Fold each of these.
Amino acid sequence: MTQRIAGIDEAGRGPVIGPLVIAGIVIEPSQEDALIEWGVRDSKQLTPRRRETLEQRIQQLASQVEILEISAKEIDTQREQRRSLNILEAQWMAQVLNQLNWDIAYVDASDVNAERYGRLISAQLKAKNKVVSEHKADSAYPVVAAASVLAKVRRDMRIRELHRNYGDFGSGYPNDPKTRKFLRDWIRTHNTFPDIVRKTWETARSISAAHRQQTFKD
């Protein structure tokens, strides 16, 4: 009997603005050759245009696709309960896998301890099938690379929508000068951050603290 293979990956773990997106797909082993032939790889190694082209092909190839978007507000709510991002990601990845029918799942591990991360996911699964959790799984397994492409395309789409609504804040990553300028300008004008900002992130906290200090001085 052919084993159904699942791959799961995320996009948007580190940004201070925008959602975290987790994507999972299911294929048959024979379909991996198509992913390799198309040049599917870790989404960060592909141009935006190439990712969008591959996303359409992957959607057509996969027998199942499940995409979960976690808003900045939801991330903050969970983090305020002292829950680590690794534990939260494992929970959300398990949530995606629970919506799919698969026999073996390959996961890109977020924890420094890949085996521990796999156990965290397995503990929350309805079906006790095999979970292979590895670092850089999106480089080792085409099915995980395909999931990374779907997650990245979805997050990029959401970021474009947010740009239209809030203005161009850049990539949303803490090391982006445009993102940091947006945060400083926004809090100076509105005295708080919009819900698209992960307020529990150190970048947001430090900018908020600097604003309060400046306001106190004034």
Note: The longest strand covers residues 20-27.
Amino acid sequence: MSNTPTLCVIIPTWNAAASLPALLAQLGEADRIVVADGGSKDETISAAIKGGAMLAMGAKGRGPQLALGARHALGSDWLLFIHADNRLPDSWYKSALHHMTRHPKSAAYYGYQADAKGFWPRFMDVWIGMRCQWWGLPYGDQGLLMSRAMYDALKGYAEIPLFEDVDMIDRLKAKFGRTKLRGMRGRMVMNVEKYERDGIWKTGWRNLRLMKDFHQGVPVQELQARYRS
């Protein structure tokens, strides 16, 4: 009998037909894939089915979708939460398996690499690496790997429309300590077209201000309205 832990990959989607097939093609080593869709109007559902994923439907917003997806990860020892527009490192499963077997009581995330050339994308790579090292604060687009036991102990993702990833990391560090959050080898490659279109520096600064207000207790609905504007 194999002692290899079972892994479920959970992907929240909304109109992700352009990026989802390539991501699903990378996930052949996962034991289960759950696509938690928020009401897509494009071919996302068809792409999920063709890619061999299980569908979880009925929630809208990344926090509620992640929580719904986790409820469909029945029997899995570990959960890996990733975004649909991510591109995993080629060695993603090797890194995940190393973590699951060597650090079973810790959560983990991948490094960050912007899918663009130039000074500002490389600045983002360095800045996000420092943020993770100094503050222990990866964002959800870097992926989050944790055992089912840890996820349940934290009572799962908060069903909030914004900063569900920050909330989860805050609770994880508060309950288990910062040392129970580790970086894995390999970098998640991110599509940063929206950042480039809106201005990398401007968007990053806005997100930092929003996160500061989130930590100071500003209602999430107010932050979401500011984020959308």
Note: The chain has a mean pLDDT of 93.
Amino acid sequence: MNTHEKGAQKEEQVCAYLLSAGITVTERNFRCRQGEIDIIGYDGDTLVFFEVKYRSGAGRGSAAEAVNPAKQRKICRVADYYRLVHGMTSGVPSRFDVVAIDGGRLRWIKNAFYYIPR
């Protein structure tokens, strides 16, 4: 299984986990010129942008550590575009979560980082 297939498999696993936790998934792999957001959904009335990261071992650090400040800024830019395209005002509550998978351990980090303006 190549890296792309493994990533798709892990995203599928995370989607099933989030659905079972009550998240309403509205979009997967939202892409635009600025980048991509893996999963977008609602936790109650809160719009949530999920970044999924997987690491099979500790050789390259933990999965959560891979969502560094540069990646966070990119996710925020894509989230801005998503809200613009969908006509959402700044009054829509939103947050940025990371679902980190290290080996077989899945960890959902709510409010993993805060919005970083352009």
Note: The chain has two helices and five strands.
Amino acid sequence: MMDLPTRLEPVLAGLGYELVMLERSGRGLIRLFIDKPDGITIDDCVKVSNHLTHWFTVENIDYDRLEVSSPGLDRPLVRPQDYARFAGEPVTLKLRVPMDNRRRLSGQLVGLEGDAVKLIVDGAELSIDLRNVELARLKPMV
């Protein structure tokens, strides 16, 4: 049996959306974060929610509540291709193992080379092993 995100990706792609992240809660909640190149509106969330409500029934997927939303301005970078897509953008990384006594780094994303995230912090380019990145998010300009 394929996992739910793997099953959902082609369904969402067929509607013109990308699955950013899926969260499951112990009380039967499925929370989806979706995106598309020109951003997400309330109407997009309603469209996907209505479609998936029927799809979950047909596919016999057990859940109590479904929430569909935009990933927000501080969108998480989840897949390797996200690092290429958002190259040049300001990001914040939370590391599993500290580098130079720091677990949080903020800087400009250069991209991904192999398994290394390239980031410019205080004018210096750093190379961080992707496996050491616990969480990466876009940093909205204020």
Note: Strands lie at 18-24, 29-35, 65-69, 90-99, 102-113, 116-121, 124-129, 133-138.
